[in-house]
Amino acid sequence: MIVNLVVLLACQLAGEVAARAFGLPVPGPVIGMALLFAALVLRPKLAARIAPTTSGLLSHLSLLFVPAGVGVVGHLDTLGRDGVALIAALLLSTVAAILVGVWVFLAVARLMGTPE
């Protein structure tokens, strides 16, 4: 199990190093995940080996949300003071993102000659 955790953490570390060394706009853990995916595709035995460890981590994934909950509780005064503005910003940005996604989809569909 320790070796499996080392593999996971080594991929994350490699991603962090690559992101910082090359000044990439992508977070290091995302690059690390891509590296892990490539390793799992190239070495299927590695996927079988780390499957029990990753299943165990995923079964306890809810523990990773505890810090976010603590942060919300720690800033209840800010939520009380600026809650309406925060909710409005979240709603407007969500709607804007959806509309931009639709617009891009339609633009690409027109360029590709695909009927709408």
TrEMBL record:
Keywords: Cell membrane, Hydrolase, Membrane, Transmembrane, Transmembrane helix. It is a multi-pass membrane protein. It comes from Limimaricola pyoseonensis. Its main location: membrane. One of its GO terms (cellular component) is plasma membrane. PANTHER family: HOLIN-LIKE PROTEIN CIDA, HOLIN-LIKE PROTEIN CIDA-RELATED. It is found in: Cell membrane. It holds the Pfam family LrgA. The chain crosses the membrane at residues 29-46, 58-78, 84-109. InterPro entries: LrgA/CidA. This is Putative effector of murein hydrolase LrgA, UPF0299 family. One of its GO terms (molecular function) is hydrolase activity. The lineage of its organism: Bacteria, Pseudomonadati, Pseudomonadota, Alphaproteobacteria, Rhodobacterales.
